[in-house]
Amino acid sequence: MKLRVFLVLLLAGSVRAADFDLLVTNAQIADGSGAPLVAGSIGVKDGRIVAVGQVKGTATSTIDAGGKVAAPGFVDVHTHSEDICLIPAAENFLRMGVTTIITGNCGHSRTDVAKFFEEVEESDVAVNVATLVGHGSVREKGMGGSFIRAPDAEQLTAMKALVEQGMKDGAVGLSTGLIYVPGSFAKTEEIIDLAKVASKHGGIYASHMRSEGARIFEALDEILRIAREGNLPIEVSHIKLSGPSAWGKTAEVLAILDKARAEGLKVTHDQYAYTASSTGLRQMIPDAALEGEREDFIARIKDPEKKAKIIATMDEMRERQGRKDYSHAIIARFRADPSLNGKSVPEVAKLKRGSDSVEDQIEVIFDIEARGGASAIFHGMDENDLKVFMRHPQTMIASDGGPRRLGEDIPHPRSYGNNARVLGRYVRELKLLSLEEAIRRMTSLPAQTFQLKDRGMLKPGAHADIVIFDPAKVTDPSTFNDPHHHAEGFTDIIVNGGVVIRDGRLTEVRSGGPLRMGK
């Protein structure tokens, strides 16, 4: 009898559940707060962190960090990832440490947030996905194809209803892209009305302002007015000074934002670590010429008088920016003729028209837009300005990128290397930021700003989003000419307790999903 009891007790002990599902040992822990690194371990159970520090206990699975840094998963607050369900592994994000993305930026989003989240849930994505409601998308749906005017009362009511429903379904706020049609035609009062709806639900207002160049101070006045009258926090998207005529004004820009903070406004900004931007080539064309359908644009450039007015406006825009031509613009993706990808506008003009004169460059821009449009990379910032913005404690690190397939098109390298570039170039090489502070800008600051509950910190109770990397080896091999290279130096990536990258290899685990505000 005693022997039988002994055997039962022995068997029960042998199948006792482990203390942790996962134990990360031998790590230099950056908890996300900006505090100094601390040697220790991290215990994970049921997708949550349950112990940090000198952790004892058994584990179903163990990762020996080997003295590398363990940090909270990075939160990329500015992405364009409406197509995340088509590339659910999001490997380009994971391999630079990003475990959470916020999409719906620059005024473009899915307007049915509930349906978007359903699709994310069904797609077995590897990262956490939050979204903003895009004002431009709401405006397009609410107003149809006629935009050079204010919405009527019925249309504004419909737009408010779209924002209201999006916020109820879990969006984190409202975004605008005020250099893009149709948002560029919106008056400030319209945006304030919609911002008040987002505010009612505790949301944020994130804006690609009306100008990041010569008229940036007017744009700042507008965004601050929206914050005050809309009664909500604001996020300045991809803060920068674009074009030679604007360079060197970083101190003035930051002084305005710091003054607003001192007056009680909640103001933050995000930034990518490159001196080139990326958007549609059509941004070289005046907004009024783009209203309506592409056929309307084609009709305008076929009319000699209207075409002359469009060209005159383009000449004024270029002069205001301090540019002589369009050599700063490089084609990234032109579906109608992929052979042009990677070429500058003057190179395309020389190739297609036998001349790279400004007049021929404009004709190339018109032709590309008429044939479906193209995305482009614009080399338009100064490195010194970038550094000043990066030093500011309220600047977060965000890629302005999206999920990528290796080898497809010639995209901006930021989608592959942004976070790694900050850690490699600006932390390790230039010592512009400490490692701990850079991690704070990628983790707790964005999580707090966008109200992502229990994210951005390594502490008991937090969701187990963890990145492990070697700060001496992290780097971004992706370049403008050769962008399709994943970041290096990240060995293990954990999302909600699931190990999605192990020893540098992508696993079959897809433990991401939708993130609704406050949940």
Number of domains: 2
Mean pLDDT: 95
Under the CATH scheme, which class of the largest domain?
Alpha Beta
Label the CATH architecture of the largest domain: Alpha-Beta Barrel
Strand content: 15-25%
Kindly report how far apart the N and C termini lie.
Answer: 53 Å
Q: Can you put this structure into words, describing what you see?
A:
The structure is a single chain. This protein has 519 residues and is of the alpha/beta class. It has two domains: 73-275 and 381-454, Alpha-Beta Barrel (TIM Barrel), CATH 3.20.20.140; 286-378, no CATH class. The protein is built from 17 helices and 22 strands. The strands form four sheets. Strands 1, 2, 3, 4, 5, 18, 19, 20 and 21 form a nine-stranded mixed β-sheet that branches. The protein is globular and about 80 Å long.
Core attributes:
alpha/beta; TIM Barrel; 2 domains; six-stranded parallel β-sheet; 36% helix
Summarize the structure.
With 519 residues, the protein is of the alpha/beta class.
Architecture blueprint of SSEs:
Elements: H1 2-14, E1 20-29, E2 38-45, E3 48-53, E4 59-64, E5 69-72, E6 74-76, H2 91-94, E7 98-103, H3 113-122, E8 128-131, E9 133-134, H4 135-143, H5 153-168, E10 173-177, H6 188-200, E11 204-208, H7 216-230, E12 234-236, H8 250-262, E13 267-271, E14 276-280, H9 287-290, H10 294-302, H11 304-321, E15 329-333, H12 345-353, H13 358-370, E16 375-379, H14 383-391, E17 395-397, H15 414-429, H16 435-442, H17 444-449, E18 466-469, E19 490-495, E20 498-502, E21 505-506, E22 513-514
Parallel strand pairs: 1-4, 1-5, 6-7, 7-8, 8-22, 9-10, 10-11, 11-12, 12-13, 13-17
Antiparallel strand pairs: 1-2, 2-3, 5-18, 14-16, 15-16, 18-19, 19-20, 20-21
